[in-house]
Amino acid sequence: MTDPQPTPGAANQRSGRVQAARDAIEETAHNARETMEQSYRKARAKASSAYAGAKDGAGHAVQAGKRTARTAARKTADTVDSAPLAVLIGGLAVGALAGGLLPRTRREAEVLGPVGRKVTGTATAAARAARTAGKDQLDAAGITTDNARSQLSSLVEGVFRALAEAGNAATAEVKRAPRG
User: Fold this and answer.
1) To the nearest 5 percent, what fractions of the chain are helix, strand and coil?
2) Which residue ranges does the record annotate as region Disordered (predicted)?
3) Is residue 33 part of a domain?
4) Which residues are CB-neighbours of 80 under 8 A, at least 6 positions away?
5) Least packed by Cβ within 10 Å: which of 1, 88, 108, 147?
């Protein structure tokens, strides 16, 4: 048996179907490419927008941080100018606290132990001497503990009297004011 010869109509029909399939595939590929390009453009735009927003946000945060740092520096300088002794004492306290919290190594104890004991002894003696000298000066000026309490009490009473009188004067003035 031999294969039957395809008829020209059947060949044309198959060729038309093949061409239609090719056209459909090309159209589908073209549509997929367009959809992909649109998605890419949208994603790129969103990423660009997010980047710009993050960049602006970071810039604002940096500026706010700089303003806060300037304010803190100004306040610190004002505090140092107005109360240098308090700042010195506070700094010593923070340093002592930090030093107390840090762990000691065996080598530090070996090397710095004698020095630490000497510094502690000297600081204790200096504090005692300062206390004694201060107390002597207060005694020489006639300022005793009882005297200081009495003066403070008088001061507080005077402030309260002044506040009460100021309140009474303001109330009297309001009552005298014409109504209308």
Assistant:
1) 90, 0, 10
2) 1-78
3) yes
4) 87
5) 1
Q: Are 87 and 80 in contact (CB under 8 A)?
A: yes
CA 123 from centroid of its chain's CA atoms? 37
**Same domain, yes or no: 25 and 55:** yes
Cα gap 55→62, rounded to integer Å? 10
Task: Classify residue 7: in a domain, yes or no.
Answer: no
Identify the domain containing residue 24 by its residue range: 17-81
What tens digit of pLDDT does each residue of 66-124 get?
Answer: 888 788 778 777 776 777 777 777 777 777 777 777 676 777 677 777 777 777 788 78
Spacing of C-alpha 119 from chain mean position:
37
